[in-house]
Design a protein that fits this description.
Strand content: under 5%
CATH class of the largest domain: Mainly Alpha
Number of domains: 2
Radius of gyration: 22 Å
CATH topology of the largest domain: Four Helix Bundle (Hemerythrin (Met), subunit A)
Number of strands: 2
Order of helices and strands: HHHEEHHHHHHHH
Helix content: 55-70%
Length: 231
Amino acid sequence: MTRSLRRLERRPPLSRSVQKEIKAYVVENGLRPGDQLPSEAKLAEQLGVSRNSVREAVKSLETLGFLEARVGSGLYVGNFSLDLMLDLLPFDIAADGLDFAQAFSARQYLELGMAEDLLDGDRATAVAQLHEILAEWKAATDRNEYLPALDLSFHQTLSESVGNHVASRLVELLWEVRNRARANGVIQAPPDLPALYRRHLAIAKALEARDMPAYRAAIKEHYADVRAPAR
């Protein structure tokens, strides 16, 4: 049975509701890249919204590659790329205090959610890589120096070890949100470098020992301690 478009209530942000309804229409009707959609005028009529609201939603969906507007022809399902959507994620988050806190919580949820697969799998390579990173980290800490690239590499190693491309990209992109929050003064640079090093060392040791309670506790402690607001 073909799914119809549903009329939308007029409550902000309306363009987001239009996007959601168009995506649901495409997915639930099993449309494929290259399949044609109703015109903007038809969409506006069926959704019960203005042409401007539809146009704004269509432009956003075009940016994601979800739709393709062909001049003189109409709207078509695009070759949607998940990577493209993920690339745009940091720019869709304001990186203010609330957004940063939620993005940081999302990173914690990801790493806690990956814990079982990570500890149950072949973690020897990951452990070896983490110890290499930590050796450089310790040297930098002894110089009273913080190297963000090592921090990112540590967390990427965890996510890449479960073989989930999307999870790895999300960790990387949520890290970019953190960088924007730091640039905007929402958070401060790590004030206690030895403590930061020890927290990451505890994560690596728990992984190596296959100690789930210790691993989850180390992850939670790490994220709790680095939420400090800028001062």
